[in-house]
Amino acid sequence: MKPAPFAYQRARSLDEAIALLAEKDAKLLAGGQSLIATLNMRLSSPALLIDINGIGGLDAIALKKGSVEIGALARHTQVERSDIIASHVPLFARAMPHIGHPAIRNRGTLGGSVAFADPAAELPACLLALDGEIEATGPKGTRSVKAQDFFKGLFETALAPQEVLTGVRVPAATRDTRTGFAELARRHGDYAMVGLAATARANGKELSDVRLAYFGVSDIPVRAKKAEAALAEGSIDAAFEALDLDPHDDVQATAKAKKHLAGVLLRRVAMQLTEVRL
Amino acid sequence: MSSRALDINISVNGERVEARIDARKTLVDFLRDDLALTGSHVGCEHGVCGACTVRVNGEIVRGCLMLAVQCDGAKVETIEGLSDSGEVADLQAAFEQRNALQCGFCTPGMLAAAQDLLKRAKTVPSRDEIREHLSGNYCRCTGYHAIVDAIEAVAKQRAGGKK
Fold first, then answer.
1. Residue A70 contacts residue A110 (beta carbons within 8 Å)
2. Of B25, B31, B62, which to mutate for an interface test with A (greatest number of A Cβ within 10 Å)?
3. Domain identity same for B102 and B66
């Protein structure tokens, strides 16, 4: 047995999970696809694991007044196969197949991925590109946090110690919505060396409201705002020149390689954004 | 009440199993150490290699990234079950025929992942789709071509049989 001993409890309700989080060294267990790996390697050794998988009603995907709400316990596979996501959140539909491998996506949850905030993960960048909101519920009730304010640092989010991420809300796509997604990984499904999630509004061939959210280039997903502006003015080459990123070396690639790959992705994603939608 | 050991009741390859197990025991360790089902292999133990792939409630999962206590009430199927039921017999035959296994360590996981793709596929998957579906399964003998060949052959064979 690899993990250090811990106590385990199934939370039957959100309130119970929140109450249990007050205990010393308690951690939530959702899909477990990152957490159990760190337990196996003893990179983390919580005193109590609170299993939230049995809490009902936290895995719904629903279209509501121009927004799509996704419960935190929606598994990646469920999001990948959802008709609502395919029709109304095409950026997620593009990104899902890149998350891990089928066996990982069958367990991993949207909420877990967002709360874990791995700098190379796909979903945090998608939320930033979509200008989405994260819903957190704690002892004082529920609040919404904009994606741009949610990711604070390396594996660090705006969640308070006793808060549970309960869902996300993103704007539903309209006829003029364009999205793009690409990433480069050493093996399909591995964490990206560099990745890019993008949204824009199209009027004929012209783009506006371009949002380029890169992942794997910093501690948190970051927008390339100068490149966004250049792309809105219509020039992919100018956007490429304007790419304002400052990646650092990591185990995956050097900063120089990442910067180069970010440019490659920019061109690929720009092509997706300007594709005519039928 | 929280507890370091819990009673679970699960179905493993169609047989009911009741056991009291440590909360920290992963599913694959439970299957191997407590039930002597050693067909599921333990490779990397952090979800990268796919050697521990098993089916829980019909979906493939990493046996090393699920706690056994999380399977309370679930239906677990291992390579022993998939093999005994004959569900993967054609895949096994094709793997043997095409030398799609060398040391055999990755084979149970490969078979489970391949079967997952084929049972879900509405048409014969392309070689790229097969590779993508198996991207989470490492073969350190690097016999990937033969594995893709075997799965492609079975996919065509099964599609032919449906006509």
1. yes
2. B62
3. no
On the CB side of A124, how many CA atoms lie within 13 Å of its CA?
34
Tens-place pLDDT, residues B77-88: 999 999 999 999
For A7-51, CATH gives: 3.30.43.10
This complex has an ipTM of 0.95
Same domain assignment for residues B32 and B71: yes
pLDDT reported for residue A263: 97
Cβ of A40 and B26 within 8 Å? yes
Comparing CB atoms, the residue among A32, A49, A102 nearest residue B113 is A102
Structure tokens at B163: 């006509």
Q: Positive or negative, the Cα torsion across A9, A11, A12, A18?
A: positive
In whole angstroms, what is the distance from residue B8 CA to residue B17 CA?
A: 8
Q: For chain A, list residues with pLDDT below 70.
A: 1, 276-278
Same domain, B52 and B93: no
Q: How far is CA A125 from the centre of its chain?
A: 5
CB contact under 8 A, A107 and B29: no
How far, rounded to the nearest angstrom, does the alpha carbon of residue B83 sit from its chain's CA centroid? 11
Query: Which residues have a Cβ under 8 Å from the Cβ of B6 and sit 6 or more positions away?
Result: A8, B20, B21, B23, B69, B72
Q: Which residue has the tokens 């994603």?
A: A269
Partner A contacted by B132 (CB < 8 A): yes
Domain extents for chain A? 7-51, 61-171, 177-274
Q: Closest-CA residue in chain A for B27? A: A1
Provide block-wise average pLDDT over 10 residues at a time, chain B (163 residues).
90 97 97 98 96 98 98 98 98 97 97 97 95 95 95 96 57
Q: Tell me the pairing of strands A151-153 and A156-157.
A: antiparallel
CATH-assigned architecture of domain A61-171: 2-Layer Sandwich (3.30)
Closest-CA distance of chain A to residue B129, Å:
11
Chain position carrying tokens 């005519």: A276
Distance between A138 CA and the closest CA of chain B, angstroms: 21
The sign one gets for the Cα dihedral B96, B98, B100, B101 is: positive
